[in-house]
Design goal:
The chain is of the alpha/beta class and 166 residues long. Helix content is 25%, strand content 19%. The protein has helices at residues 15-27, 42-48, 110-115, 130-144, and strands at 4-10, 32-36, 59-62, 75-80, 96-101, 118-121. Strands 3-2-1-5-4-6 form a six-stranded parallel beta sheet. β1, α1 and β2 (32-36) form a beta-alpha-beta unit. The N and C termini lie far apart (37 Å).
């Protein structure tokens, strides 16, 4: 796969979301994961991550967006729940990306929005919890950057569908 990516959460409020996101980050091949938070993340996030991704995936905690170091050439992409944003028909996936997932209830801080190269809203009827939003972003990145087989364009191309019941 080309490039690299990292993913993190701003203002973690639920350790379970953090643990689930970090597990997905490990599964989807993130270069590292991070949290912009105070000490609310703590031990409970690690317990929520049953894959123990922290042993295999670098994890960083920064007190704020201002303290987040960016790799040279990487773009910060904010993932937001703000209904005022237009839903983008696609997620920009630069070769070198750092994705920042907004907290479920509050959205991205003004400081994070101003630092981001792009802020997008995922399509759907409801706001997704941060772990689900992050997993979708990483899955979409995997499809775009070629780590999976091409998707079938018709249901007849789905394995096991041969026009018979069962």
């Amino acid at each position: 796969m080309r490039g690299f990516f990292a993913i993190g959460l701003e203002a973690v409020t639920r350790p379970m979301n953090a643990g689930t996101l970090f597990r997905a980050a490990y599964a989807f091949g993130a270069s590292y994961a991070f949290a912009l938070s105070d000490d609310r993340l703590g031990r409970r996030a690690a317990q929520a991550d049953t894959s123990a991704s922290a042993r295999h995936l670098p994890f960083f905690r920064f007190p704020s967006i201002d303290a987040l170091p960016m790799p040279e050439g990487a773009l910060l992409i904010g993932i937001e729940i703000d209904d005022a944003l237009d839903t983008m028909p696609y997620i920009p996936h630069p070769d070198q990306a750092v994705y920042l997932i907004a907290p479920e209830a509050d959205g991205l801080s003004a400081a994070a929005r101003s630092r981001a190269s792009a802020v997008i809203r995922l399509p759907g009827r409801l706001a997704l919890n941060p772990a689900m939003a992050g997993a979708l972003v990483m899955y979409d990145r995997m499809l775009i950057h070629g780590r999976s087989a091409p998707r079938p364009v018709a249901s007849s191309a789905v394995p096991g569908r041969h026009g018979r019941n069962g």
